[in-house]
Amino acid sequence: MKLLVIGCGQCGGRVADEFARRDRRAREQRGVSILSEALAVNTDIADLSGLTFIKTDQQHRILIGGRKSGGHGVGKINELGAEIAREEGDRVLESIGNSQQRSPADAFLLVAGAAGGTGSGAIAELTHQVKERHPDKPVYTLILLPFRYEELTEERAIYNVGTCLKSAYLVSDAVFLVDNQRYITDGESIKSNLTRINTRVVGPFYNLLCAGEEKDPRRIGSRLVDAGDIIQTLSGWTVIGHGQASVSRARFPMAGKLDFRNKLTETEKGIHAMNQAIASLSLKCRPEDARKALYLLTAPPEEMSMTLITDLSMTLKSVATEALIRSGDYPRGRDSIHVTVILSELTNSGRISDYFSKAIRYIYLKKRRLGELKEGREGLEEALRDIPLLL
Ligand SMILES: Nc1nc2c(ncn2[C@@H]2O[C@H](COP(=O)(O)OP(=O)(O)OP(=O)(O)O)[C@@H](O)[C@H]2O)c(=O)[nH]1
Ligand SMILES: [Mg+2]
């Protein structure tokens, strides 16, 4: 599956840059391409210059809102980010159009950090515009949720997340949610944390995107996961995870192969990788809330047994009890088993409702402070409608 990735704001741009790095790796190491293009859109010229893998011309690094922001970002005011995207989105559409002519994508993926200004504000507006211009292709968003310290110390962050999520959900075919806090390592500098987090955010997509692009018959699984399966799976709130386990290389391969005890442990390792994928989903959630699920097993061809596939399906079904499950295999590699899991169409999420109620509270308190509330007449309930849309 080929994506056209559009990073919005600093966070979105860096994650898009990581997709571009992976694409280069896929081409060099696997002879397949997983992106049709990667673009970055920002109001901040320095952020655009700091990227590495996205091509450097103005068609790929698109500066918007130069007049309104002076090229220095929108300082976390996401309404301003949305307004600029509304006014200048046609430049992004033009770049996308050119790129689609050179190399068409199966789907679009827009990326942003929800707590910032530019990306948080622009992502829903741009998604909406891309969808209108390309109604035949799915448009997905990948939204990064803030670290806990940001939620605790930056009052505005929660409001930005609430408005960004509400708006993006309305216009995207699916919203991938990633919780930055899940990947944090204490004692590491923020910069190296972010770089490492970005590799972990993009990592789970790698095999999934490569699998359907393989041309070599030896790399094509008996149940190939292609763009069609992925598109059928994705809808609404979505999370993704990846797990792996190394498989032992027997010193005497034939003896190893014939030994049933080895097979038993390989199946256990596969299940271990699946459990790890579920435990490391990009946002903590309850798998029973998913209506759709997909897993991909990537493993050396000799490890792909029917037993393993059956056991993996049963393991996923035992937790994602309400989900329609799709699956596939990707014969690749020599010494490890990888499992990628997607849970989609999540009907419930404590974390998302929590953001909405906190955003409502923020608006309520702000109104009260400004004397815009008639005492006793407007409660939290009424305020729910008040979470503004950035569209
Ligand atoms: N995972 C990850 N999160 C990031 C990265 N950079 C920023 N963030 C997070 O994104 C949020 C801030 O959004 P930014 O992307 O910096 O903001 P922006 O869209 O550039 O908007 P302005 O700077 O206000 O114009 C915070 O929650 C950060 O923790 C990154 O490279 N990786
Ligand atoms: Mg910025």
Based on the model shown, name its key terms.
ten-stranded mixed sheet; 20% strand; binds magnesium ion; binds guanosine-5'-triphosphate; 391 residues; 60s Ribosomal Protein L30, Chain: A; Rossmann fold; single chain; alpha/beta
Report on this model:
By secondary structure, the protein is an alpha/beta fold. The chain has 2 domains: 3-202, Tubulin/FtsZ, GTPase domain (Rossmann fold); 235-346, Tubulin/FtsZ, C-terminal domain (60s Ribosomal Protein L30, Chain: A). It contains 15 helices and 10 strands. It has helices at 9-30, 45-49, 66-69, 78-102, 118-133, 148-153, 155-171, 190-202, 205-211, 227-233, 253-258, 260-279, 306-319, 350-369, 380-384, and strands at residues 3-8, 35-42, 61-63, 107-113, 139-145, 174-179, 236-246, 290-299, 324-331, 336-346. Helix 1 links the parallel strand 1 and strand 2 (35-42). Helix 1 (9-30) crosses helix 5, helix 5 runs parallel beside helix 7 and helix 7 packs across helix 14 (350-369). The mean pLDDT is 91. The structure holds guanosine-5'-triphosphate (GTP) and magnesium ion. The site of magnesium ion (MG) has 7 residues, from helix 1.
Mean pLDDT across every amino acid position: 91
Silhouette: globular
* Extended strand count: 10
Poorly predicted regions are none
**CATH-defined superfamily of the largest domain:** Tubulin/FtsZ, GTPase domain
In whole angstroms, how far apart are the ends? 29 Å
In the CATH scheme, the class of the largest domain would be: Alpha Beta
Q: What class would the helix/strand composition place it in?
A: alpha/beta
Count of individual domains: 2
Rg over alpha carbons: 22 Å
- Spatially, the strands of the biggest sheet line up as 3-2-1-4-5-6-7-10-8-9
Order of helices and strands: EHEHEHHEHEHHEHHHEHHEHEEHH
Second CATH tier, the architecture of the largest domain: 3-Layer(aba) Sandwich
Question: How many strands, what sense, and barrel or not for the largest sheet?
Answer: 10 strands, mixed
